[in-house]
Design brief:
The complex is a heterodimer of chains A (113) and B (115). Chain A is mainly β and 113 residues long. Chain A is built from no helices and 11 strands. Classes of the chains: A mainly beta (113), B mainly beta (115). The interface between A and B is medium-sized, with 29 and 25 residues.
């Protein structure tokens, strides 16, 4: 079974721009969670989507948003990029919401200049 | 506040010996704990997990021990191999609809296994 895939793998943007990252979960998995990893804050939860609905949200500003499609693929969007948004963005999938073991993709490395 | 802590940033062991990675947590509501391994430029790879109703779980060379009274868990790798060299993250989750899909991670411990 193919793992979680994320595109693009690397991205360079400038301050003020917006960015959209994509995640395809493991086949059959319907829950997708997003995390931000930075050297200072570590891995932090952004949000979870299940059945095209946001089920949970972490402590991030409204500039961070996401959505999920009927095929369980998910996108996250960051608007008005700031330098501090430079991070590794990780997507993880699990069979269903409430399933506690998550399987991660390779991540998208975002650099904001 | 850091609810999951890995107090050792790094650990170095000799090939063939035991590696013991430690993790402490502060929230007694956590009911599920996981260990992930991460290589540079890759996402975390799930290793092993344990429910709070157990105190030990084994999978091949990996064993996780949970001490609920001490709010402490540890990952034992026996025997350690050079390919185990990576960053290891401890993670925890809480039950309830307001916690769904959310893992809380420690800061990670870099393990180096020397040949």
């Amino acid at each position: 079974k193919a793992g979680v895939t994320q595109t693009p793998r690397y991205l360079i943007k400038t301050r003020g721009q917006q960015v959209t990252l994509s995640c395809s979960p493991i086949s059959g998995h319907r829950s997708v969670s997003w995390y931000q990893q930075t050297p200072g804050q570590g891995l932090q939860f952004l949000f979870e989507y299940f059945s095209e609905t946001q089920r949970n949200k972490g402590n991030f500003p409204g500039r961070f948003s996401g959505r999920q499609f009927s095929n369980s693929r998910s996108e996250m969007n960051v608007s008005t990029l700031e330098l501090g948004d430079s991070a590794l963005y990780l997507c993880a999938s699990s069979p269903s919401t409430g399933e506690q073991t998550q399987y991660f993709g390779p991540g998208t490395r975002l650099l904001v200049l | 506040d850091q609810q999951v802590k890995q107090n050792s940033p790094s650990l170095s062991v000799q090939e063939g010996r035991i590696s013991i990675l430690n993790c402490d947590y502060t929230n007694s509501m956590f009911d599920y704990f996981l260990w992930y391994k991460k290589y540079p430029a890759e996402g975390p790879t799930f290793l092993i997990s344990i429910s709070s109703i157990k105190d030990k779980n084994e999978d091949g060379r990996f064993t996780v021990f949970l001490n609920k009274s001490a709010k402490h868990l540890s990952l034992h790798i026996v025997p350690s191999q050079p390919g185990d060299s990576a960053v290891y993250f401890c993670a925890a989750s809480k039950p309830g609809s307001s916690n769904t899909g959310k893992l809380i991670f420690g800061q990670g411990t870099t393990l180096q296994v020397k040949p």
